[in-house]
Amino acid sequence: MDDQKEYKEFTEEIFKLTNIPLHLYRENQVRRRVTLWMSFVGLKSFKEYLNYLKSSPKALEEFKKKFTINVSEFFRNPELFDELKKYIPELAKKTDILRVYSAGCSVGAEAYTVAIILNEYFKGTKYHIWGLDIDEEALEKAKLGIYTKDFFKSARTDLIEKYFNKMSQDKYQIKDEIKTHTTFLKGDLILGEPPRLDFDIVLCRNVVIYFDEEAKDKVYANLSKCLKVGGILFVGATERVFDARRFSLEYVSSFIYRKV
Known about the structure:
- The protein is an alpha/beta fold.
- The chain is built from eleven helices and ten strands.
- The N and C termini lie far apart (about 50 Å).
- GO terms for molecular function: protein-glutamate O-methyltransferase activity.
- Its EC number is 2.1.1.80.
């Protein structure tokens, strides 16, 4: 079997086993990472590695974690969140409750960051935040809301003290007054459906960098579909939606787009 065909069968089988659509990820990037992991266990072909993953639930679980884990922290790129704050008053005026979607929410730091911002700077604004991710373990951590100090590198000390309960020297848990404004759900950004279709703000930051162009288009089409007209899409600092009009979006700033 030639290498390309073997790789294709590998991605198809992995999708059946894990629901992770590797065939929509950048091939060179996937190949490089998988080949490295194969070498760690002394295997030389995708077929051998697939059989190894099928025979070891523990190895398959570790594989899933490697492909779904995201770097996450509170107030990542705080200056970008400061920019986002400028658009919230106008959005809040137009709705009974501000609905926010954290797409690819990982362990929940982004969703809780937005909740803290709304609670701290927009008192009286009703809001709810939905977080979606494919990784069940990450979602359980998000629901629990317990974080170590390394999650707070970009967060102000006064906000940590105000919105978290200190559990130990290195562990903090988000307070219930914030947690009650969040819902975390399992879902696939590329192949699945969004939790609802009337969001005022959608955040999808540092997620699509792993996807090929076809997958990116599907993600942005889905995100646009679930935004209200006039709603805001907030992407990562180094990300850009090319030809945004295709998705009924208009460029507002280097990381903010508006649904039109």
